[in-house]
User: Fold this.
Amino acid sequence: MLTAEDKKLIQQTWTKVQEDFGGEALERMFTTYPQTKTYFPHFDLHHGSEQIRGHGKKVVNALGVAVKNMDSLSQALSELSNLHAYNLRVDPVNFKLLSQCFQVVLAVHLGKDYTAETHSAFDKFLSAVASVLAEKYR
Assistant:
């Protein structure tokens, strides 16, 4: 799945990721896929909302844990998977939608540093994260 080169590209790129990327990705997801808003009925979903920024930081932090634990994603994200499957009951397709939006944010902010190879590595990585988060649904 993830090659040694993929892992290296992800780790190098991750050093450029900022906490506000998560909030931007969430805003993009809510705009592009409005059905995802149903999981956030208590949030202020307006642009720049403190709640979206706060949840976005959680997303970036969770992805940071995944970057540090690429060889043991299931173990590293087990609690998060439990939370989303059993407590929040989030439709697992939303993990893929957020992954797509996160990649757009990376491309916008990183520009020429977000090469085709980096995009491919992140696509595989975020797909693996989405798969792990959906494991408890089976």
Remarks:
- Residues 83 and 89 are 8 Å apart (CA to CA).
